[in-house]
Every structure is written in C-alpha cells, then in structure tokens.
Q: What sequence folds into this?
C-alpha cells in the first residue's frame, strides 16, 4: 500500500508543518524504513499513478518519530510535531531555515555533525546515515538517522530526510542491564567471600583443625560453589530467553515421578513429610518435554512455596485441554491436550496489584533472599515448550502457580 504524508492543512494549523503541499513517498519510506534499493543508493522513482483508494493520507504529525525534511538548498521544508517536541523548537521557527541551524547536532566527542557528514557535498554514492546517538544543545541525547534522496544514484541531493527519536526506551534498557549486573555482583560476592575465607583458612592452618572441622568447611565451600554455579546457569538462561535461543530437547517425561522426586529432596533436606500434599489424576497423557528444564520449573516453584509460603504445599498434576489459537488470530480453533501442574500454599499469598509483575525480572515477593530471576526464567521455559503459566490465589488464600505443557510426541516422531 502506498502511503502519502500530507503537510499541515492551511485551514487547521498543526504543531508541526511542511512548506510543501505534501511530502512524497520518499519521505514516508525514510520515516518508516526505506526499502533496500534506496538504502544502497539505487534509483528511487516516485510511485506510479494508482487509484485514489490505494492511498492512505497520513499527516506528518501522525508519525511517532520526529521528521525533518530539507530541500536541495539545505533549508527545512517539513518539521513535524514530534520533531518540535524533541528539539523544543516551534515549527514556525524551523521552516525555511538552514538544516544545520535548526538541528545543531554534535556527536559524543563534541564535533559538529553536519560539518562532519556534509550530506550535500560529500561522496555522491552515499544514501544516508545510520541511526546513532547525537547531542542537541544543552547536552540532550537524541537518536538521529538520515537519508539522502537523489534523482539518480550519483546525482545531487534533492532532499535530506531526518528522523529523530528520544532515548528514553534505550535508557530503560540500560537501567535494566545495570540492575542485572548489580544483582549478579551482589549475589556472587557473598559465596565467593565465603569460599575465599574458608580456603585461605584451611591452607594457612590445616594442621590445627580436626577432620570434622575440615569436612564442615569443605561442605560449606561446596555449597557456595553450587550457589555460584546456579547463578551462572540463571544468567545463561536469561540470555537465551531474551534472544529467543532457548533450546528444548524433548524426551518422554514422567511428570508425576518428577514431582515426587522434588518433594523427596525437600523432605530429605529436613522438611516435614506432612508439609507436602501430592494429588495426581490418572491416567496422564504422554508428555514430551525437556526433563532438565521441567526439573528447573518444578524446583523453582516448590522452593518459592516453601520459602515464601506457609502451611501445606499442594502439588496437583492432571490432564487438561487448553484452547489452541491459530497464528495471528484470537479465535479458538481447537482444544490441545496438555498436562497441568498446580503448586499452591497456605500463606498470605501475592497482593493483587503485584500479580502482573510476578514474572518480570527482579520481582521479589518478600525479603527472604533470592535474585528475583527465577520466575522470569520459569515463564521463559514454559513458553519455550509451547505452554502457559499463570499466578493466582489458592482456595486456602496462599499463592497458586499453574503451568500447562502440551503433550504428544514432537512432529519429527509423528
């Protein structure tokens, strides 16, 4: 579909404006992402005539990013509302003025950007400038990309189309990364300090300790080393989830046996046997999943229930049917056989206002330790299997986590 971006209407002045009656499709492509042939400098001809109903009129002020267009003389002919907001410059003060005066950009080293790039007098084969971080007067950062519009591949520049974006989204991402680094550094410091202290003590005063004392110290070192290993594994999982590279190696999984194994591990570690209640609805369908990752999900949910909840921890395993949706549609097309696992406790539960953030990074339900990454990883693992996970309040008032995994053999075994 061809898109035509109109300039400001004379009868209804807008915050942004264009001197020309309309910006042609070239400007629209620059704002929305120019086609490959334009980015590489190939000829970009105006669109062929088309029926009126194939065009959608879009005002330049409707664009989410700032749009600035300069003509062949370097004077601004279009300055939309987003550009006026980002630069704090009224459109009336920008139109007709030289581009380098309207946008006095500098790079992070303090060099004047337009003098450095020279769009009108530089290499004739250039098609523009990729997006980069530049500075407006006062040191405000802005993301800037430019396209040089030419009638012929090596001809003179007819227009310079510039897009502007704020850096708020990038800053939020950077803050998230900084928070992750700070959390990891804090979690690593404690076990590594313990390991260093015990090993240094053993090396310096080995003969002074009894065998029982040496064993206790080495067991502590081993536990702290396992803690560091788990944290590194969590970081790797987060990296794979964020990049969409989390691999699932499907094998037949006895989910009921896996639940019993995890409960036994907790009772062996000192928990009361009556602290857990397992309910399994037989028969269960054949489940093909990654056994290691299923263990990771069960281990995290049970540990959260034991650590943050109270009373009896109930684990229910049962077959279920989950509505399947066709891709790109919200209409249920079929019911997919699945296995549902519910882990609930009798504690105070999760506040209603916090439930939407449970599966985000660094969410902690209490001050009882933890990195706040476990449930984020659990959600990523379940979704990588094609399943779903939800959180709610149990009948006893505590927290209730329920995840479903689709059953059946993978396609390559069908």
A:
């Amino acid at each position: 579909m061809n898109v035509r971006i109109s300039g400001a209407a004379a009868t209804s002045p807008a915050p942004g404006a264009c001197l020309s009656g309309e910006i042609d499709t070239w400007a629209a492509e620059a704002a929305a992402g120019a086609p490959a042939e334009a980015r590489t400098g190939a000829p970009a001809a105006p669109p062929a005539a088309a029926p009126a109903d194939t065009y959608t009129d879009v005002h330049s002020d409707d664009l989410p990013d700032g749009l600035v267009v300069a003509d062949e003389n370097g004077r601004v002919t279009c300055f939309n509302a987003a550009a006026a907001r980002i630069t704090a410059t009224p459109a009336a003060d920008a139109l007709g003025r030289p581009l380098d005066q309207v946008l006095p950009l500098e790079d992070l080293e303090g060099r004047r950007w337009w003098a450095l790039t020279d769009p009108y007098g530089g290499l004739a084969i250039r098609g523009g400038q990729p997006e980069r971080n530049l500075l407006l007067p006062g040191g405000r950062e802005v993301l800037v990309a430019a396209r040089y519009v030419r009638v012929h591949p090596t001809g003179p520049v007819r227009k310079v189309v510039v897009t502007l974006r704020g850096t708020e989204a990038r800053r939020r991402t950077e803050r998230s990364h900084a928070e992750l680094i700070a959390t990891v550094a804090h979690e690593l410091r404690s076990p590594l300090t313990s390991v260093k202290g015990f090993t240094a003590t053993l090396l310096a005063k080995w003969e002074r300790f009894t065998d029982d004392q040496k064993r206790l110290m080495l067991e502590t070192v081993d536990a702290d080393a396992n803690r560091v290993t788990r944290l590194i594994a969590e970081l790797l999982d987060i990296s794979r989830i964020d990049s969409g590279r989390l691999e699932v190696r499907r094998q037949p999984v006895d989910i009921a046996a896996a639940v019993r194994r995890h409960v036994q591990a907790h009772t062996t570690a000192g928990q009361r046997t009556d602290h857990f209640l397992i309910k399994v609805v037989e028969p269960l369908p054949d489940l093909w999943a990654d056994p290691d990752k299923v263990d990771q999900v069960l281990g995290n949910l049970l540990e959260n229930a034991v650590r943050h909840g109270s009373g009896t921890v109930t684990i229910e395993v049962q077959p279920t049917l989950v509505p399947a949706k066709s891709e790109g549609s919200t209409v249920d097309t079929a019911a997919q056989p699945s296995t549902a696992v519910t882990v609930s406790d009798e504690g105070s539960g999760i506040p209603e206002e916090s439930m939407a953030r449970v599966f985000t990074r660094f969410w902690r339900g209490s001050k009882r330790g933890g990195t706040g990454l476990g449930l984020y990883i659990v959600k990523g693992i379940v979704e990588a299997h094609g399943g779903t996970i939800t959180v709610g309040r149990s009948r006893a008032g505590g927290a209730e986590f329920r995840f479903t995994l689709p059953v059946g053999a993978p396609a390559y075994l069908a």
